């Protein structure tokens, strides 16, 4: 493979100033109507953090045909299905997704419902590409083109000149080429290319590399007729015949929500073009016409009570540097009202190797201690140790992660005291806690706990969730400043609780 092009870090402010002027054009009612005419938007989310820009929308964590039929009959404009495919190796992910797609195809046929699929994936490019696109194409295709739009503006993930960047967590002012971020070093989904053209080629390998077409920022900001001109480009691209096995891939250079709005308006004006979209979270909210609302406040979540308060539960599994910094601040800033239970991963693996009973004893002990902490009004923090144990082999790395997450799941499953809220830190962690520990099969995204941090409530119409109506915070590993987690826990705590109950 040719040498990877190295791109410099750039100032966010300077990059923004170098681009043409932008004006916000929220989707009109007519645009939204045209988009809805394309069919129910079904967002296949490879971990639950994809709900970080939406509110008042359903999430399914199961995909039995009957459940999908019931959901499609609601006629909601769109909904999410959590695949959690990023937690699985290629072969397992393929089996899961193929079953899901077949069930969805059957449910859509039985309800006479046209659907349009979005593959929501990581805004720092981890995930099963092109596997998920290929499988979706085999069942719902053929598609005229694939759209690759990983921008997530609230998290500082943007695309300029086909190069994808992530805002540096250390200073929140520098854009780092995504190939230079920790995500690129992921054992299972690592990559070298920051340029999305090169990234597509890198992920597709030497064979079956599709044509790649860019939409420049200048085109997206081309005035009042920008959307109509882009719609014509889409139609022209769809009508061209490619001899390649995969359709062309479109890369939109989106830097702001207004850029995404223009792109979505162009899609609305090109109803005949069949798109398969692989995107970050920002595309989904724009495509559905979901406006931004402020994060929900503690007073909106927690009614006043005359009873002594029960503590909250915080589960931290993510290992990325930002999560580690957030854990450090949380434990320092909230030390007066938290109890920390750290799982030593090296010790855990030794126990698991030596005896299943040893691991079970550890889980039971921590669950009981958490019960005691919660009952006394303390917030319980359950986290993994911060020394990263990561095998070189991607499959082994995923297997190790599964063992660790499984212990967190067992601990939460063993807790008997109903907490005031649950925060799960990390994509895979939050998925497994929701689906396995809390038995959520259907949830409602009620809003955001903080910018880019989804807040769910379980829906009792499907399954039997462990703690119905307990607010569930899906906290992505790489979102927020170093203080966001600690500030959220402190806000949920509320000064009035500490004063009134002397906790």
Number of helices: 18
Largest sheet: 15 strands, mixed
β-strand percent reads 15-25%
Mean pLDDT level: 91
Radius of gyration: 23 Å
**Low-confidence runs:** 495-503
Q: What is the CA–CA distance across the termini? A: 60 Å
What form results from the Cα inertia axes? globular
As a percent range, the share of helical residues equals 25-40%
Structural class: alpha/beta
| Strand adjacency order, main sheet | 10-11-6-12-5-2-4-3-17-18-19-16-13-15-14
Number of strands: 19
Model description:
This protein is of the alpha/beta class and 503 residues long. Helices cover 39% and strands 18% of the residues. It contains 18 helices and 19 strands. It has helices at 12-18, 29-36, 65-73, 90-110, 131-140, 196-204, 217-220, 226-239, 257-268, 281-287, 298-301, 321-333, 345-354, 356-375, 394-414, 427-437, 484-493, 495-501, and strands at 10-11, 40-45, 57-60, 78-82, 115-120, 145-149, 157-160, 163-167, 174-177, 212-215, 249-252, 275-279, 313-316, 338-343, 379-384, 422-425, 442-450, 453-458, 472-475. The strands form two sheets. It has a 15-stranded mixed beta sheet, sandwiched between helices. A four-stranded antiparallel beta sheet has the order 1-9-8-7. The radius of gyration is 23 Å and the shape is globular.
């Amino acid at each position: 493979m040719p040498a990877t092009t190295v791109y410099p870090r750039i100032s966010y402010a300077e990059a923004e100033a170098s681009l043409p002027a932008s004006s916000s054009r929220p989707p009109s009612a007519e645009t939204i109507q045209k988009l809805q005419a394309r069919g129910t938007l079904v967002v296949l989310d490879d971990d639950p953090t994809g709900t970080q820009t939406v509110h008042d929308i359903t999430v399914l964590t199961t995909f039995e045909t009957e459940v999908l039929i019931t959901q499609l009959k609601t006629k909601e404009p769109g909904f999410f299905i959590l695949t959690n495919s990023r937690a699985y190796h290629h072969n397992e992910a393929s089996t899961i997704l193929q079953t899901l797609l077949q069930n969805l195809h059957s449910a859509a046929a039985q309800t006479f419902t046209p659907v349009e699929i979005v593959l929501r994936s990581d805004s720092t490019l981890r995930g099963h590409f092109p596997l998920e696109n290929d499988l979706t194409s085999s069942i719902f295709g053929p598609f005229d083109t694939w759209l690759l739009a990983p921008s997530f503006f609230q998290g500082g993930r943007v695309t300029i000149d086909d190069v994808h960047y992530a805002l540096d967590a250390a200073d929140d002012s520098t854009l780092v080429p995504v190939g230079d971020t920790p995500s690129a070093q992921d054992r299972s989904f690592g990559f070298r290319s920051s340029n999305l053209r090169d990234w597509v080629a890198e992920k597709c390998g030497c064979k079956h590399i599709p044509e790649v077409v860019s939409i420049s920022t200048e085109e997206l900001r081309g005035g009042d007729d920008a959307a109509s001109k882009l719609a014509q480009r889409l139609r022209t691209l769809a009508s061209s015949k490619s001899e390649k096995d995969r359709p062309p891939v479109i890369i939109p250079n989106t830097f702001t929500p207004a850029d995404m709005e223009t792109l979505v308006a162009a899609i609305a004006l090109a109803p005949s073009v069949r798109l398969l979209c692989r995107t970050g979270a920002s595309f989904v909210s724009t495509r559905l016409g979901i406006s931004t609302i402020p994060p929900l406040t503690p007073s909106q979540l927690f009614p006043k009570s005359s009873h002594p308060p029960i503590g909250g539960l915080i589960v931290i599994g993510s290992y990325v540097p930002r999560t580690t910094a957030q854990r450090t601040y949380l434990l320092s800033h909230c030390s007066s009202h938290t109890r920390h239970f750290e799982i030593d991963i090296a010790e855990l693996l030794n126990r698991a190797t030596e005896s299943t009973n040893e691991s079970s004893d550890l889980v039971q002990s921590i669950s009981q201690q958490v019960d005691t902490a919660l009952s006394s009004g303390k917030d319980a923090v359950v986290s993994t140790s911060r020394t990263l144990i990561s095998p070189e082999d991607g499959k082994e790395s995923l297997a190790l992660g599964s063992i660790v997450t499984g212990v967190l799941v067992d601990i939460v499953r063993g807790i008997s005291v109903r907490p005031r809220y649950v925060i799960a830190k990390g994509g895979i962690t939050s998925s497994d806690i929701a689906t396995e520990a809390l038995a959520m099969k259907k949830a409602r995204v009620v809003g955001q706990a903080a910018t880019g941090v989804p807040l769910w409530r379980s829906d009792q119409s499907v399954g039997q969730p462990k703690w119905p109506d307990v607010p569930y915070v899906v906290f992505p590993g790489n979102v927020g400043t170093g203080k966001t987690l600690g500030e959220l826990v402190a806000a949920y705590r509320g000064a009035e609780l500490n004063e009134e109950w002397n906790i």
